[in-house]
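Objective 1b. Sequence-to-structure analysis of DUF465 domain-containing protein.
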Amino acid sequence: MNAPSEMSFDEMLRVKLEVLRREHRDLDEAVHALETNGRPDQLTLRRLKKQKLALKDAITRIEDQLIPDIIA
């Protein structure tokens, strides 16, 4: 049986989800800061946006795992 200090799989997913959401928010702020700067570095901006999109995909996958499918 699991010890009280161990996390269940769902709890681990929720922690990972929160970390990914925080990283996504941080990237969003970085993109915004670059865009408001006079002449943003387009390559850096493109890379940040690509990372942000990958994080959003990972967030969606974890949310799908946590929310059970309901067959109507």
